[in-house]
Prior knowledge:
The structure holds two protein chains of two kinds.
Chain A: E1 3-7, E2 10-13, E3 19-26, E4 31-38, E5 45-52, E6 55-58, E7 64-70, E8 73-78, E9 87-95, E10 103-105, E11 109-113
Parallel strand pairs in A: 2-11
Antiparallel strand pairs in A: 1-3, 3-8, 4-5, 4-9, 5-6, 7-8, 9-10, 9-11
Chain B: E1 4-7, E2 10-14, E3 19-25, E4 32-38, E5 45-51, E6 56-59, E7 62-67, E8 72-77, E9 86-92, E10 104-105, E11 109-114
Amino acid sequence: SQTIHQWPATLVQPVGSPLSLECTVEGTSNPNLYWYRQAAGRGLQLLFYSVGIGQISSEVPQNLSASRPQDRQFILSSKKLLLSDSGFYLCAWSGGTGFINEQFFGPGTRLTVL
Amino acid sequence: GENVEQHPSTLSVQEGDSAVIKCTYSDSASNYFPWYKQELGKRPQLIIDIRSNVGEKKDQRIAVTLNKTAKHFSLHITETQPEDSAVYFCAASKSPQGGSEKLVFGKGTKLTVNP
């Protein structure tokens, strides 16, 4: 069965510091991968998606970036965090060996920028 | 692009009653409509989905209906229980174009089931 991991689970960072969040998927190949952000008490905002290694599409302009160095690894980064970057970051996957469309979320990283 | 509206934003019901959450979408090409349940502090969990080739789908106490003509779909929860309390999100997407099937989410409905 497929499993998705995210780390770290929680993170507290000062404004202006760098960020690196990691997501890995097991049990499937060539998945589509997604990064979402959820502000406190709010909905899900799609940040980036990737259909393959090195292929990244950005949904909203921001100071974040994403990379996919391996088939089942997706990384979210920032060079300098802003207060507004605080939120719950969720990685998701779809496709691979399962049905297209169905997206499954990782456990998330709760980021607080102080 | 696709736009998904979800109502109500909050819903409070008594245990045992039914709950209905409604969503409308704008892109007539959308053909996949999932529902996610998110408990406090947890990840969204896919609870049921429907594709545009059917009008209704049921899974025990949960059902989803789809009206393609009116471009709306609804989640029905019968015999609600306190553990149904959570935030529910609807979403819409269409067949992959260029390899990706992006979901567009509604803003969520906070359901509270009172014992």
